[in-house]
Design brief:
With about 140 residues, the protein is an all-alpha fold. It has a domain at about 1-85. It is built from 3 helices and no strands. Helix 1 packs antiparallel against helix 2 and helix 2 (about 50-105) runs antiparallel to helix 3 (about 105-135).
């Protein structure tokens, strides 16, 4: 279990780094796209001889904004993954702490506490399975 915790921490750090990179890319792309778009539109108003060239610039600005929107979408998905790993890490550490505290009890009470831990974990697993089923929709019926 301790190796699981180490791996979760590693994934947590990777997700955090990826989230920062995605967000920074999205912000830079938004700024660049907006500048290209605004400059192209402003130039279109004043430089009628270069209308075709400036139209291409405006299209480039729109495409840059599309790339920025894609980067923001990736950022959101990365945050979802980041939050999932964070919850997993927290749950894993809590579970290990409970086991550690249980091991410190007198031997006569340990079995009872271990049974309660197992019961609570089984109900938690069942609850998670039901929540996942709700998100994915009803199971197909077998006929």
């Amino acid at each position: 279990m301790l190796s699981n915790t180490r791996e979760l921490r590693h994934f947590y750090l990777i997700s955090r780094k990826q989230a920062r990179g995605s967000f920074a890319l999205a912000i830079v792309m938004c700024i660049i796209g907006a500048l290209i778009l605004l400059l192209s539109i402003a130039a279109l108003l004043f430089l009628e001889n270069y209308r075709e060239t400036l139209t291409i610039g405006a299209i480039g600005g729109v495409l840059t904004e599309f790339v920025a929107a894609t980067a923001l979408f990736i950022y959101r998905k990365t945050l979802d993954q980041f939050n999932h790993y964070y919850r997993s890490l927290h749950e894993n550490e809590r579970f290990l702490s409970i086991l550690n505290l249980t091991a410190r009890l007198c031997p006569s009470k340990q079995d009872e506490v271990y049974i309660r831990i197992i019961d609570s974990q089984l109900s938690y697993i069942n609850q998670e399975n039901w929540m996942n089923m709700d998100r994915s929709g009803p199971a197909p019926s077998k006929k």
